[in-house]
Amino acid sequence: MDDPVLGGLAWRGGEQREYPPKTSLMNDSRPTSSIDPTLPLRAKGGDRQAFAQLVDVMYARSLRFALHMVGNREDAEEAVQDTFIRVHRNLDRFRDDARFEPWLFRILANRCRTVLEKRKRHSVVIQYGDVPDRIGAVEEVERDWTEEVYKVLDTLPTEQREAFLLRHVEDLAYEDIAAITGVGLSALRMRVKRACDALRARLTEVMRDE
Amino acid sequence: MSEFERDPIIDKVRDTLRSAPHVAPDQRAVARVLSSVWESPPPSGWRRFFNTWRVPALSGLGAGALAVGALLIGFVTRGAVNPKQQPEPLAATGAPTGEFPVQTVAFDAEAALVQTQFVFEHGDAESISVVGDFNDWKGEAMPLTRMPNGLWTTTVPLPPGRHVYSYLIDGTLLVADPRAPKSGDADYGNEGSVVMVFAR
To answer: Dihedral sign, CA of A155, A81, A34, A179?
Structure first.
């Protein structure tokens, strides 16, 4: 039987859920922590529908993080795909009382680091600022600013970029980032501070010119 | 948030990076990821064992000792096992029996089966299966998985060649794939769609 649609909410089994779930970051750029906590548990129990929903909800955020970390879409998509394969394979290790997002980002951050290491080994030269994959159709002024942001982001050491993105873009708590990266809290704060200092130093001028 | 993080520039950087406009995924990207997940082989028994027990990293010496021990056990038990004993053959094809249907179908090297993805868009169905000449038009053999965005998908191993298929909706309605060429001949009373599978 079809689900009756009630004012944009689909009525399912006695509970209201937003449908379809938000996936676009264009309309709501804030990270969403709105993962239904039962989804990972249902996926762990073999519910493919629940896993599909997890991918649907987390794909955009994961791709954004990977894109900012590795700088090109092909590598980012590969990292995200590998991440979800690993998540699925290791669902039986996911603790019932754990939160899904930090776990996902831990695997994703590892995949991104692996991509970057692989790239280093193959001596691929990355031109700073040559990051067209990440810039969409934006106004020219905004485009200059965005390009500058990416330039600076790419000059940051990987660990600083990672810490900054997890803290400021993904809005994760330091405790979660510590679990993701395996780095102590004070060292993490220092990484974020250095990233902020570098961004501030390089972008103050650009902001003034706008 | 501490003082060094509270800054209009950092705020603007954050907004810029959060609103990267092209990040919004298309449904096909999610379908591709899910398809890879379903195709990916499950962890081996040993991997599950190590995952479960979290065996700590071994030192070189420890790993060496473990290897020597394993060899010794191998020598001691040699002959105890009948070498002619063969494992039970895997089913070459057939209905899925495990958690992930695609993974439980044994790969038939001689027939060189090719993993073939089916994607169908339908918002209202309760269940959809792909039926065709490759599964004797049996409705339950190859169910598709619904994703929240309305796409249904599955990947099945098919032998190379031309196959006629349709989608069976809610166990009653047979529908051709609107994005595939029509078969031109009515099979099972309905015109089906054609998929050409090429050997890799």
So the answer is: negative
